[in-house]
Specification:
- Helix content is 41%, strand content 18%.
- It has a 5-stranded mixed sheet, with helices on both faces.
- The chain is globular.
- The model has no long low-confidence stretch (mean pLDDT 94).
- The structure holds 2-acetamido-2-deoxy-1-O-phosphono-alpha-D-galactopyranose and zinc ion.
- The site of 2-acetamido-2-deoxy-1-O-phosphono-alpha-D-galactopyranose has 13 residues, from loops.
Length: 555
């Protein structure tokens, strides 16, 4: 770092002094806080993004969003060159950067880090950072902070992509670094063409949107997803999507709407009710990286039957397993590629879903909460499907398997035209293009659900009947220090404070099919409690008594 760089950082950072008495942590989803506290953090993450770009000699993404959190919050996170989350090795630096008390401390920290990491400042490709933000009103001012941060690194370029869903930005970063076209137009083009390709490959006479399967109603959480979905819908030929809570009619982001609300509260979002009984409905979260389906209960118009991330995973797994079976059954294809299919869940996955997937003969892996862990595990397979119960997930395809699919479809298209094997290979290829390879993406997930339901000829009810969820309950407990809870075995066991796990076990033993675990949240200052049992009353009461134990052990 030369003198010029040193003084540029010093002068620029003096405009972004950090708030007093606030300690920020990069967490499972970047930094999140009340938006008024985040100017210096976003500025500093801008510097971090530019340094990461220099280090990797690639394009880096920077997304300003607080996802499903309330509208007055905001947040910021980095997309690495692959389109995935920031490398975990850089998280401690992100924490230190955000919390450096003065410009002098900040510059010293950067200086040391640059030396340690050997970050090339001169003679290398200049840093490039793609900026995206959700619809939060605070996003505009934070955009300026982001740009100032990036451009306080000499020659660094910040490219403002405007208002985007989080997965769109991740997709763009990935595409740019692969030398592919990466505009929003290209994103919509890829999703819609692979969707239409899958529709064309539906066997027999099932390939039309007709009858009860015709229409889908989507709750856009009053965020960015609904707006983007309206653009996408025009390119789909046939699927009718009605978007409600698009944010254009004065509704407030994530307030009584959105995937997080629907999944946790198990009630209809604002704007839905008895008129929707019998209609297939879906809900996105505020930045459109989560997706759940639901239908309005015929018994009470405020209640829903929830089809969560676990069931989306199960639907995807069934479809993919079927295509692999077709490929493997053909004599001449035998042993040519034994693709490994794996699914990845967290402890929040409903126990009934895990049982169901295991009964299908699938390899089910558990990781701690946080997309970075699920994604990493899923990347070990040729096809890795991961989902959190809350609806965040995607399907990853290995490069080698995609290469094999491409070669196979090329070979087959010149021979036995239109064979079942060719169709199965084409379907898998189209899925790999439709489903976001960078992160969970509600829009691409929604299109894949829709086309699979058409393929199977299934209604939402039929899909929901794959297995019956065990009743569950989630609670939050406010404690003095949530980091006092330390867990192991993918967060299923508490190792500290001592004695808490034994006490939880004693409670669990009182319930039929009881299961419960606690863990510190990575995004809120709370300890989360999850409980499951054979009845709703049981799940509620188990969650309640475990939350009392947490209070007692940490009070
Ligand atoms: P925390 O606050 O660590 O529980 C929540 C979700 C995660 C993940 C992150 C990031 C639950 C129980 N937890 O994390 O699954 O989505 O937010 O947004 O839903
Ligand atoms: Zn989100």
């Amino acid at each position: 770092m030369n003198e010029e760089q040193h003084s540029l950082l010093l002068s620029s950072s003096s405009h972004y002094l950090p708030p007093q008495g606030v300690k920020l942590s990069y967490g499972t989803a970047g930094f999140r806080a009340d938006a008024s506290l985040l100017h210096s953090t976003v500025y500093r993450v801008g510097i971090l993004a530019a340094l990461r770009s220099l280090k990797t000699q690639s394009m880096i993404g920077m997304m300003t969003t607080a996802s499903h959190n309330k509208i007055s919050d905001n947040g910021v996170k980095i997309a690495d060159p692959s389109g995935g989350m920031l490398s975990q090795q850089w998280e401690p630096f992100a924490d230190a950067l955000a919390n450096a008390p003065s410009p002098q401390d900040l510059v010293q920290l950067i200086n040391e880090f640059v030396k340690k990491e050997n970050i090339p400042f001169s003679g290398a490709r200049p840093a490039e950072v793609l900026l995206g933000r959700d619809t939060r009103p605070s996003g505009d001012a934070l955009l300026k902070a982001a740009k100032d941060g990036v451009t306080s690194v000499i020659a660094a370029v910040a490219i403002d992509m405007g208002i985007l869903t989080t997965p769109q930005l991740h997709w763009m970063v990935r595409a740019r670094n692969k030398g592919m076209k990466a505009s929003e137009h290209d994103y919509f083009g890829q999703l819609s063409s692979s969707f239409r390709c899958l529709m064309d490959l539906i066997p027999g006479d099932k390939s039309t949107f007709g009858g009860i399967n015709d229409k889908l109603v989507v709750d856009g959480a009053n965020g960015v997803g609904g707006v983007k979905l309206k653009v996408l819908e025009k390119l789909l030929n046939g699927l009718i999507i009605e978007v409600r809570n698009s944010g254009e009619d004065g509704g407030i982001l994530n307030e009584g709407v959105g995937a997080d609300y629907v999944q946790k509260e198990k009630v209809v979002p604002h704007g839905f009710g008895s008129k929707d009984v019998g209609t297939r409905c879906a809900s996105l979260d505020g930045d459109a990286d989560r997706l759940v389906y639901f239908c309005v209960s015929s018994e009470s118009s405020s209640k829903i039957d929830l089809v969560d991330g676990d069931k989306i995973l199960s639907l995807f797994a069934l479809f993919i397993r079927e295509q692999l079976r077709i490929l493997n059954e053909q004599e001449d294809m035998k042993n040519s590629y034994q693709a490994r299919l794996g699914v990845v869940q967290t402890a929040y996955a409903n126990g009934a879903s895990t049982n169901y997937l295991r009964q299908l003969g699938l390899e089910v892996n558990l990781t701690p909460t946080g997309v970075k862990y699920l994604h990493e595990k899923a990347a070990e397979f040729d096809i890795g499907i991961y989902f959190e119960a809350n609806g965040h997930g995607t399907i990853l395809f290995s490069e080698s398997f995609i290469g094999w699919l491409e070669a196979t479809t090329d070979k087959l298209s010149s021979g036995s035209k239109g064979s079942e094997v060719e169709k199965a290979a084409l379907r898998l290829l189209a899925v790999s293009k439709l489903i976001n390879q960078a992160v969970g993406d509600a829009l691409s997930g929604l299109l894949l659900v829709e086309v699979i339901l058409q393929h199977m000829g299934w209604t939402l009810d039929r899909w929901n009947e794959l297995y019956q969820d065990l009743p569950s309950r989630q609670l939050k407990v406010k404690v003095a220090d949530r980091t006092a809870v330390v867990t192991a075995n993918a967060e299923t066991v508490v190792v500290s404070p001592p004695g808490l796990q034994e006490a939880i076990n004693a409670e669990i033993a009182k319930y039929l099919q009881g299961r419960s675990f606690v863990r510190p949240s990575g995004t809120e200052d709370v300890v989360r409690v999850y409980a499951e049992a054979s009845t709703q009353e049981g799940a509620d009461s188990l969650a309640y008594s475990v939350s009392k134990l947490v209070e007692r052990f940490l009070g």
